[in-house]
Specification:
Order of helices and strands: EEEHEEHEEEHEHEHEHHEEEHHH
Distance between the termini: 25 Å
Shape: globular
Helix content: 25-40%
Number of strands: 14
Strand content: 15-25%
Largest sheet: 8 strands, mixed
Strand order of the largest sheet: 4-1-9-10-11-12-13-14
Amino acid sequence: MKKLVCVGACYLDTILDVPYYPGEDSKLRATNLQVRRGGNCPNTLEVLQQLLGEQEGGRVNPYLISCLPDADAPATATIVDSFRPRCLVDFTKCIFRAGHSEPASSYIIRSEATGSRTLVNYNDLPEMTIDEFKDVAGDVGDDAWFHFEGRIPETTLQCIRYLRQSFPKTRISVEVEKPGRGGLEDLAAEADVVFYSRSWAESKRYQNAQQCLSAQSGVARNASLLCCTWGSDGASCLSLPSKKAVSCPASFPGQTISVVDTVGAGDTFIAGMLFGLLCHHEDWDTEKQVQFAVQLATLKVQQDGFDGLGAEALKRL
């Protein structure tokens, strides 16, 4: 059985919908409130387990490595329960922080006027150390796929180099997402597959996804595939060393997209790409993989949350 290990933070998101973004020192009534589990890797795994649950053969065993509160904390139970009833994710590699009852938390303000999202994060859980990673990753063994969120680049780089030295057959993907976070390009230089966000690309003054990928092909020197999402323009991928480029729009002429919730759209795209790379590497070419991932993310932005995405996307193949 193939193994996919996703390494990243797990949050409980509080999402407030407001008519418009409030000014400083003002008061505003929200029109809706949701509390749901978030975090890049957990979101990706939630969508991916839906796809795997609909897939015949080619099984993949997904793991999460994340720092969570005490194993007996109610917040931890809430996080695990969020993957049920059809949970395929293995949580045994998570790092449970004894004595901590509160999870990492994210407060998201969504403006109905502009569609903007403003996030405020809080995390009191001690971050994972390289030694803790070695303890849990060593049990997974060789010939696995490790996907890294790209947070705490110094530690992540140590993790990647440990995998390269100890498990040379391991495939590694990484997210380059947060603008201003130093060290992300060092991670890209070590990975097999790199996912760039539009916000990071624009912070580097790239005008579009293709320009980002062309420039970054000289940085991600070990990569075989680079991907960059670009909102309503869809996504582009660049295969290396052939430099064959593929782009797919989020919508086609005559198609109407009603955006409801963009939280987790990038994570959904990554779930689609990982599904293609792991389960359809023989029968889908890169263009097919990108098209599927973009269509999956387009479905996601038209609904709240992630329920039912896998079945609907596969039905449309």
